[in-house]
Design a protein that fits this description.
The structure is a single chain. By secondary structure, the protein is of the alpha/beta class. The protein folds into 2 domains: 242 residues, P-loop containing nucleotide triphosphate hydrolases (Rossmann fold); 66 residues, Histone, subunit A. The chain is built from 15 helices and 6 strands. Strands 3-2-4-1-5-6 form a 6-stranded parallel sheet, with helices on both faces. Helix 2 links the parallel strand 2 and strand 3. Helix 1 packs across helix 15 and helix 12 crosses helix 13. The chain is globular.
């Protein structure tokens, strides 16, 4: 790492690829502060279904930006960038290196490239889009978005209704795609305000050698979540009375499917099947982001190996020592 700029380490990868284990191993070897980059770990009371680090793991490597919101609250990308910046500054002031670890690629992307100033959207436009979705379905609205803003559509899952509605509303009200706003902001921003120009950022990603092994690991972890009381966790959230599937927290992978099971929309087996499918789709989207990611050190890993954390830490150390 160079001495001219404060160092930062990014540790990315698909869900269930071993990021937490590797972050803890790294924290045992180097003076680092772990900062979570995960849009689900921010919520209190959502521990089992998010695979949140255990109390024992957090004692070995405390994580910033975990348990900072109630599930009834919304938390934007801008909120994350603000809070992550505060954690990064605190780590550097203590003479340590922040390690940002997680799989919410949109958060990482926003840190690196900044946030575009989007035009405000009114309730009438959003309501009209919601009404269209009831008739056409979100998949057709996603296709409509792809026709006018293919770049944004490629980064949004066809079932992610909130993001589809937001992107379509921006286009309908301004006549300009959301991706164009982002590109324009990057061109207009002074270079020295860019994250990668202010910090010495070294980026790593855990890349599974075989997709089938990742799917097996996802299935094993989902089974363990069910054994550990995932149904009871979501039941408690369901019974609160102030939560619904309209909230980002309850749309998190696994939670939505369990909520629908509790609400008697799915059978138990259907819940498991749909939960696993959603998790595999999440991993696929994360790997798609990483495939075109610039400046990335790819850590090809056998995720079935019990020595993943040790091997990964040695690989990271080798890269850092060569800089």
């Amino acid at each position: 790492m160079t001495d001219s700029k404060p160092p930062i380490i990014f540790l990315m990868g698909p869900t269930a690829s071993g990021k937490t284990d590797l972050a803890i191993a790294l924290a045992q070897q180097r003076p680092v502060d772990v900062i979570s980059v995960d849009s689900a770990l921010i919520y209190r009371g959502m521990d089992i279904g998010t695979a949140k680090p255990t109390a024992q793991e957090l004692s070995l490597a405390p994580h910033g930006l975990i348990d900072i919101c109630d599930p009834a609250e919304t938390y934007s990308v801008a909120d994350f960038c603000r809070d992550a910046q505060a954690e990064i500054d605190k780590s550097h002031q203590a003479g340590r290196t922040p390690v940002l670890v997680g799989g919410t690629m949109m958060y990482f992307n926003a840190l690196l490239k900044g946030l575009a100033d989007m035009p405000a959207t009114d309730l009438a436009t959003r309501a009209a889009i919601e009404e269209e979705a009831l008739v056409k379905g979100w998949s057709l609205l996603h296709e409509e978005l792809a026709a006018v803003d293919p770049e944004s559509a490629a980064q949004i899952h066809p079932n992610h209704s909130q993001r589809i509605a937001r992107a379509l509303a921006v286009y309908r009200m301004s006549g300009k795609p959301m991706s164009v706003y982002r590109a324009e902001q990057l061109q207009q921003s002074p270079v020295d305000t860019h994250f990668s120009e202010r910090y010495d950022v070294t980026q790593f990603a855990l890349i599974p050698q075989e997709r089938a092994l990742l799917h097996q690991r996802i299935a094993r972890r989902y089974e363990m979540m069910l054994e550990d009381g995932f149904e009871e966790e979501v039941t408690q959230l369901y019974q609160r009375g102030d939560l619904s599937l309209d909230l980002p927290s309850m749309r998190a992978v696994g939670y939505r499917q369990m909520w629908e099971y509790i609400n008697k929309v799915y059978s138990y087996d259907e819940m498991i099947e749909k939960g696993l499918a959603a998790t595999r789709q999440l991993a696929k989207r994360q790997l798609t982001w990483l495939r075109g990611w610039e400046g990335l050190h790819r850590l090809e890993v056998d995720i079935d190996s019990t020595t993943l954390a040790v091997k990964g830490e040695k690989n990271i150390a080798r890269v850092l020592n060569s800089l």
